[in-house]
Amino acid sequence: MTGRQLILILSDIHYASKAEKQRGWREADFIDNPLLRFGVKAYRHLIWRKDPFAHNYLLDRFLERTGGADYVLANGDYSCDTAFIGLSDDASYESARECVTKLRQKAGAKLHLTIGDHELGKTSLFGGQGGMRLASWWRTRQQLGLSDFWTLEVGWYVLVGVTSSLLALPVYAPETLAEEREEWRQLRSGHIDQLDKTFAHLKPKQKVVLFCHDPTALPFLLRIQNVSSRVDRIQATVIGHLHSEFFMLNSRILSGMPTVHFLGTSIRRMSAALREARCWKQFHVRLCPALAGIQLLKDGGYLTLELDRDAAQPPQICRHRLAWDM
């Protein structure tokens, strides 16, 4: 039970297949207000990502660095989700399939993958298109072969991967189809049971490193009895979703803000998450940036996590940059 383990972590790859590139990014096409449409285009162009399809090469650069790793963990969002309905869309599925195939070919049995919100679908920022689809859930699970919940024991550490969109379903529910909501609730209930049992059966010396794509889910974890009573066992929680420390910092500043209901589904969802973001401290949150970061800062990269198998030392997490081709 001695020695250190090296784990490489990546998130928000947003790989683009040929079909997604050909479709293009059509978010602004669904926005009727011309000023809002201009604002969204400016935000995408200057801050978020000018060309969301231009960074597939960064996955290859990451994979070149995995040779010495004991494990490789991917924390969700494998496609660009240009139809906003997740992997039930053929073009988005092809992006995710190509991305995950590359990861599996390089990392093999060392690889563990969590499910992100874009695997399942999410409503576009202001156009109100898309949302979570059960067809995307089943395709992610059955065809892409991703587990919704996984654990990995590394010495006295237990690594736990969860599906954040299931846990945060009370926030995401308005983006689901009415006829699918009951099945989503049943899936969430089973997910919560798995988490509750996992934390209930922790051995006295075991500590946890949690992998949760979207931090919106974290307050809901605290409502699970055995997670709440053992939250002090969580040494680190690796999130994705925010893409950049720029947004991580702003999330901390805005934590506790009221939920905004009058600016559309996406703003309601994001503000609801920020309203309860003060609880993130209890989880020792660390952001894994998007592989490409954001346009404004070009601050993409990945994390390395070093674990002392006998848990005598706390986890060591370091961030590494990946440079853009200019």
Structure, explained:
The chain has 326 residues and is an alpha/beta fold. It has a single domain (4-321), classed as Purple Acid Phosphatase, chain A, domain 2 (4-Layer Sandwich), CATH 3.60.21. The protein has 13 helices and ten strands. The protein has helices at 18-23, 34-48, 57-63, 90-107, 117-120, 134-143, 164-167, 169-172, 181-200, 218-221, 225-229, 245-254, 265-275, and strands at residues 4-10, 71-74, 111-113, 150-154, 157-161, 207-211, 234-239, 285-287, 301-308, 316-321. It has a five-stranded mixed sheet, covered by helices on one side. Strands 4-5-6-7-8 form a five-stranded mixed sheet, with no helix packed on it. The radius of gyration is 19 Å and the shape is globular. It starts with a strand and ends in a 5-residue tail after the last strand. The model has no long low-confidence stretch (mean pLDDT 93).
